[in-house]
């Protein structure tokens, strides 16, 4: 039998909203949340029975009052990354079309950032390689 991971595996789905100028929306995790102060792509945990796309639509609605259509979500890359207390598996979608104006419903700071400037923002460990992929492949 193969050994199991001693840490829980967390399935998260995230989305890079891209505006007409090619800037990417990132959010700073607010005080009181795990990894507070780190910048990340909006999104959250995939709930049982949800697809990653459904999770992104729900999370963007909850966190930003933004409505992307599911077919506007394009798979871009994924990470499988060990943190000290859990292991995260997270697909990142790209989205260029949505309804509404992003509003920080959880008190999170928002920033529209050019891909070349992503390195100026301290991102969670799992996101560093995604930011590099965006720089290289977008
Ligand atoms: N949303 C999001 N979470 C990320 C990213 N990178 C990363 O390591 N995570 C981690 O994934 C975990 C779950 O994400 P989350 O806190 O957004 O989940 P959620 O919206 O369901 O939060 P909640 O439990 O407060 O409702 C957190 O520990 C978060 O730090 C990212 O780019 N976006
Ligand atoms: Mg979240």
UniProtKB/TrEMBL annotation:
Domain Nudix hydrolase residues, every copy: 8-136
One Pfam family from the record: NUDIX_4
Cofactor dependency: Mg(2+)
Keyword Nucleotide-binding appears in the UniProt entry: no
Enzyme class at the top of the EC tree: hydrolase
Signal peptide: none
Protein keywords: DNA damage, DNA repair, DNA replication, Hydrolase, Magnesium, Metal-binding, Mutator protein
InterPro entries reported in the protein's UniProt record: Mutator_MutT, MutT-like, MutY_C, Nudix_hydrolase, NUDIX_hydrolase-like_dom_sf, NUDIX_hydrolase_dom
EC numbers: 3.6.1.55
PANTHER family hit by this protein: 8-OXO-DGTP DIPHOSPHATASE, NUDIX HYDROLASE FAMILY PROTEIN
Protein name: 8-oxo-dGTP diphosphatase
